[in-house]
Amino acid sequence: MASLSHLHCLKPDSMQHGLVCKIKCFKQKRFHLADVKFLWALRTPKQHYIHWKDRPFFPRLAKYRNSGSILAMVWEGPNAMKTGRVILGETNPVDSKPRAICGNFCIQVGWCIIHGNGSVKGAEKEIKLRCKPKEPADYRSCAFNWAYE
């Protein structure tokens, strides 16, 4: 199910505000939590945000991402990418639909509390940055076959 993975990272401010419990919406959708890592900051902000390195906000973004711990999660399941993006909402909280994480808990675009991939290719790249070669672990709950065809 690796091609159906989606990576999310709770950013430093969401960790400081105790919003870790908000990931329950992914579990409620019966996605499989394939990997989770509690990390001090982002070890590779320049690799992670290479496409924005020439933008004026990049130094502030890199500093913010290295200001505290993050929680990186790999979720798997049918349509995990598309459904995950709907659960997260738009990066600009004003454009998010009701009950989306960004709409409910974000105030400004620059301080979005959660990161989610926009493409399978992006997810694969970021998972490689965060996970060792044998990760994510190949664990399946006994309920896995009850949730997925």
Automatic annotation (TrEMBL):
Classification via InterPro entries: NDK-like_dom, NDK-like_dom_sf, Nucleoside_diP_kinase
Keywords tagged on the record: Kinase, Transferase
Protein source organism: Saguinus oedipus
Family: Belongs to the NDK family.
Protein EC: 2.7.4.6
Pfam families linked: NDK
Record-level Gene Ontology MF annotations: kinase activity
Taxonomic superkingdom: Eukaryota
SMART domains in the cross-refs: NDK
Domain Nucleoside diphosphate kinase-like: 7-138
Name by which UniProt lists this protein: nucleoside-diphosphate kinase
Encoding gene, per UniProt annotation: NME2_1
Names of required cofactors: Mg(2+)
